[in-house]
Amino acid sequence: MPSPLNAHRARRGATLLEVVIATGCLTLLLGAIGAVAQRGRSAAEAGVSAAALSARAQRLVDRIASELMNATAESLPLAPAVGRATVQVDFRTVEGFDVVQGEIEEGVQRRIARVPSPEDPNDGIDNDGDGLVDEGQVVLVLDTASTPSRELVLASDVTEVLEGEVAGNNVDDNGNGLIDEGGLSLQWRSGGTSVAIGATVGARGAGGGVLLRTVSTIVHLRN
Ligand SMILES: [Ca+2]
Ligand SMILES: [Ca+2]
Ligand SMILES: [Ca+2]
Ligand SMILES: [Ca+2]
């Protein structure tokens, strides 16, 4: 029969063993929870970046459309050649109506243009290592005659060419009717009374691959 002292030691030994086992179980459990949480986080990040990228492309196209919606058709430069699009448009918006002269009052000349990114100059190399080669920005110049120029960056990470297109090969690779169109694609339609807008933005997804999102719309101009 164990003495009270031995019984106490046995009980203490069991308690230590239980603590070791419990700690081991807890470590495994925490590890499993951590792995699940990590997987959940990666999935969420991938989902968010794809959704965020879609939203950025949509916001860019919506903003360009809202600018051009009030532009007068006469203020646009000559239309690009058939089957070609441009990455820049100068325009004037309707500011009011002069009842004495009986004519529309136009505002200052504005410009929407895709320009090279400061971090990734146009040299065929992905200088900033973001997975996009020669991506650019789309800017809105508020007054083309103003010095220094006042401009807003409407979007960054606008690709060099529209999604599916290969630059400079004189072929319509993505089959949208335009040859070698840029990541911002502007094309006059219906004799210059509407403009087709397309834009592709890109970013590196959580999995390391490059995500692209393209949005397009057609806006009818003021006559
Ligand atoms: Ca880049
Ligand atoms: Ca570059
Ligand atoms: Ca094309
Ligand atoms: Ca091409």
Helix and strand arrangement:
Layout: H1 4-69, E1 88-98, E2 103-116, E3 136-141, E4 151-158, E5 184-189, E6 194-204, E7 210-220
Antiparallel strand pairs: 1-2, 2-3, 3-4, 5-6, 6-7
- Helical residues, percent: 25-40%
Unreliable spans: none
Report the bound ligands by name, code or SMILES: calcium ion
Strand-and-helix sequence, N→C?
A: HEEEEEEE
Q: How many structural units, i.e. domains?
A: 1
Helical stretch count? 1
What's the β-strand tally?
7
Largest sheet: 4 strands, antiparallel
User: By helix and strand content, what is the structural category?
Assistant: alpha+beta
Mean pLDDT: 87
Strands of the widest sheet, in order across it, are: 1-2-3-4
Termini Cα gap: 108 Å
Q: Gyration radius, to the nearest Å?
A: 30 Å
Globally, the shape reads elongated
The percentage of residues in β strands lies in 25-35%
Please provide a brief summary of the model.
The protein has one helix and seven strands; from the N terminus they run αβββββββ. It is α+β, with helices and mostly antiparallel strands and 223 residues long.
Features:
single chain; 223 residues; alpha+beta; four-stranded antiparallel β-sheet; three-stranded antiparallel β-sheet; 7 strands; elongated; binds calcium ion
Model description:
- With 223 residues, the protein is α+β, with helices and mostly antiparallel strands.
- It has one helix at residues 4-69; strands spanning 88-98, 103-116, 136-141, 151-158, 184-189, 194-204, 210-220.
- The protein has one domain.
- The chain has 1 helix and 7 strands.
- It is elongated and about 100 Å long.
- The mean pLDDT is 87.
- Residues 165-166, 169, 171, 173, 179-180 line the site of one calcium ion.
- One calcium ion is lined by residues 120, 126, 128, 130, 132, 135.
